[in-house]
Amino acid sequence: MQQQQQSKIKLGYWDVRGRGEPIRLLLNYLKLEYEDEIYPLSDREKWFNFKRNSQELFINLPYVQIESKETQSQSIYVESDSISIFICQNFGGEQLLGKDLVLLSKMRGVTEDVKLYLSRYAYHNDFAEADQLFLQKRLQPILLRLNTYLQNYKYLLGSNISYLDFVLYESLKTLEKIKKEYLQSHTYLVQYIKNIENIPQIKAYLSSERFHKDFLFYGDPSPI
Length: 224
Ligand SMILES: N[C@@H](CCC(=O)N[C@@H](CS)C(=O)NCC(=O)O)C(=O)O
Prior knowledge:
Organism: Tetrahymena thermophila (strain SB210)
Domain GST C-terminal: 93-215
Function: Conjugation of reduced glutathione to a wide number of exogenous and endogenous hydrophobic electrophiles.
Bound molecules: glutathione
Catalytic activity: RX + glutathione = an S-substituted glutathione + a halide anion + H(+)
Strand content: 5-15%
Enzyme class: transferase
Radius of gyration: 18 Å
Number of strands: 4
Helix content: 40-55%
CATH topology of the largest domain: Glutathione S-transferase Yfyf (Class Pi), Chain A, domain 2
CATH class of the largest domain: Mainly Alpha
Shape: globular
Strand order of the largest sheet: 2-1-3-4
Oligomer: single chain
């Protein structure tokens, strides 16, 4: 564990992996101590109660609440991409933002598209149709390009890891669950997953109790 953290970090999210998991991966990569505030999908009132009482206009899940140990003051951060940037900037992860904002934004767009088509599949009422429409027609071409890209680059921004890699990693794990064969045909994407899982902090996290291995990838009503 790195030197004493000056703030307490709490991550609020449903009891699914969803948009919370890339943030958990980032927190673990940076060896930060944090507390999970889990909102059960089976008892949504806990969340709605918190939401009603929040002073943050854009309150949503996930959120990150920071409590300063010194002043006891609390602040709240929302929007998953913004939360990750905030953590990188304030908790020793500046290098995870890369140096090229244009490239960062480009690869964020690509990872968002991957996430979009997977979730369209997951929330569709006819998986056979969704496979055609979203996985084969839309997702596969992007995966092909990513596979080509990762033949030359270890991570999304090049040779150094960024917070976006945790977002893509989580999407690829989702695909592995949904249609393993679609992932396995892309050698470099498979290698990319292994690279991330071999990072010591990530390896330690995935085998720890902090990792919610029973959580589904998506919230109700998706069975994935
Ligand atoms: N743009 C937001 C989307 C957040 C969002 O859609 N959150 C979903 C779960 S993934 C939710 O259930 N939010 C709680 C709510 O809308 O009350 C982000 O990236 O954080």
